Amino acid sequence: MARYLTTTLPYVNADPHIGFALEIIQADALARMWRLNGEDVFFTTGTDEHGQKIYEAAEKKGQGVKEYVDHYANEVYKLRDVLGLTTDAFIRTTDEKHIRAAQEMWKRCEAKGDIYKKSYTGLYCVGCEAYKTEREIEERRCALHPSLELRELTEENYFFRLSAYQEKLLSYLAQSGSIVPEWRREEAINFVSGGLEDFSISRQKEKLTWGVPVPGDDSQVMYVWFDALTSYISTLGWPESGNFEKYWVEGTTVQMAGKDQVRFQSLMWQAMLMSADIKNTDHVFYHGFINSGGQRMSKSLGNVISPYELVEKYGTDATRYLFLRHVHPVEDSDVTWERLDEWYTANLVNGLGNLVARVMKLAEEHLTPVALSKEDVTIEPAFTKMIEGFAFNEAMDLIFEHVGKGDEYMTEREPYKKIKTDEKDIALADIEKLVRHLAKIAAHLTPIMPDTAEKILNAVRENKKPENLFPRLT
Length: 474
Prior knowledge:
Blueprint: E1 2-6, H1 18-36, E2 40-47, H2 52-61, H3 65-77, H4 79-82, E3 89-92, H5 96-111, E4 115-125, E5 130-131, E6 137-138, E7 141-142, E8 151-160, H6 166-173, E9 179-180, H7 182-193, E10 199-200, E11 202-204, E12 213-214, E13 217-222, H8 224-229, H9 231-234, H10 244-249, E14 252-258, H11 262-275, E15 283-287, E16 290-292, E17 295-296, H12 307-314, H13 316-326, E18 333-334, H14 337-366, H15 381-388, H16 392-413, H17 415-418, H18 424-445, H19 450-462
Parallel strand pairs: 1-2, 1-14, 2-3, 9-15, 14-15, 16-18
Antiparallel strand pairs: 4-5, 4-8, 6-7, 8-10, 11-13, 12-13, 16-17
Helix pairs in contact: 6-7, 12-13, 13-16, 14-16, 14-18, 15-16, 16-18, 18-19
């Protein structure tokens, strides 16, 4: 089966943050799991590079806006190697092929009668790059960006008739799995049932020069979200054939996003697809936020943790472990350096790493290489189901249950003692059983911690204790 998987596109007005690292690591684990099961996967990400925030950030830094976005786009692109990702494509919204696709999306929605022009006065949040409705404002501040003042703007802009799609969106959202988790789907249904307002999809060029030109109107540029959302199909070569037919039309489509994206990904984007007569996304998964010390991460508070810092301290696979096991897939999670150190040391250094070292030292000294069977490296269906159901933490817990069972077996059977007695044959059988157990653990680690999985399997094949998998923190 053809499967399409995309993350959101991080906005290139700062270095990549830990929330996006969570999202793309979750996506990568899912993509790897699908591929292990023989699925044909197209896994994509990229960067969102237009809009007011980026224009102002470049000005503030004294840089040309193209130079500015090139720098930060490269910082996001580098995550592929740093986090061990298996993405198949990287789309930038400044790519010419994407700009052509965004303009084609506009033309199709306009031809349907869903785009019109009017004068409008409203409160605009630069943080969201969007006008805010009364339901989204708390004490004249955006609920998502309370530190930013809302700007009252009066402009003549183009609008998209979102209000015309209320019933169609409710029908789409009624499909089980259209949004995961389920309670986010119910939230979306309640929001749509309360009534939808048309939304602005352009800005006056004299106020914002950095954007995709509106077809047929040189005085306007596209609102950044209308432009950026189209990236999910422009990356597949749409409107030309490319991979679009295979992966979007005929395949199963999954989008990953943060919990603050429901309005954009599951309402606005889906209505745009309906307007353009394009198949809707099959599933959108929404993850929670990562906080630190009880507060949302922000530069002003000085509690931001960079994915690059995590990898530098713990390594790529350990960073993937920390995100997938100790950050809840859908609820908000609190992460501090102290907790990260504790999780790393207790579960990787003293847990998995110690078990592998002890077992393989005994194997190297007393066994010949163990010939693994297919059963030894078969992944449990329950594990696959957890990954495909976005329960990454539960899948990790299952692996570490097996790590714990290995420790318990070693403690109860004491092969390191029996090997020196007349129970040597029993000890050899126990050591072999533990080696096969390590292979089983490694098989399950393959989509989660691929390098670690390969090191363990190589150690088993070569019958040698590997180099220390997880160095102690200094």
